[in-house]
Design a protein that fits this description.
The chain is mostly helical. The protein is about 80% helix and about 0% strand. The protein has helices at about 1-20, 25-40, 50-79. Helix 1 (about 1-20) runs antiparallel to helix 3 (about 50-79) and helix 2 crosses helix 3 (about 50-79).
Length: about 80
């Protein structure tokens, strides 16, 4: 439980850092281009890098939370 809370706090802080001017643009650009190249889709323009980084981080947090919720929910239903 503590790990999940820590994960969500870290993801929230990453969203704030990527959305504001705290995280440098070249670091965001490298990370977003790496994600897009891994999946095989084109990278966005430099004017939308921050927004795309926030969307990726938020989507990851929602997916992880949803999967863990479903795991706990269905496990409790079986017991």
């Amino acid at each position: 439980m503590i790990g999940l809370i820590v994960f969500n706090v870290v993801m929230l802080l990453l969203c704030v850092a990527a959305g504001s001017r705290i995280m440098p643009m070249n670091l965001i650009s490298i990370i977003v281009e790496g994600w897009h190249n891994t999946i095989g889709i084109t990278s966005p323009g430099s004017d939308k890098m921050r927004m795309v980084a926030v969307i990726w981080i938020a989507s990851t947090a929602v997916l992880v939370d949803g999967v863990l919720f479903m795991l706990v929910y269905f496990t409790k239903m079986l017991l």
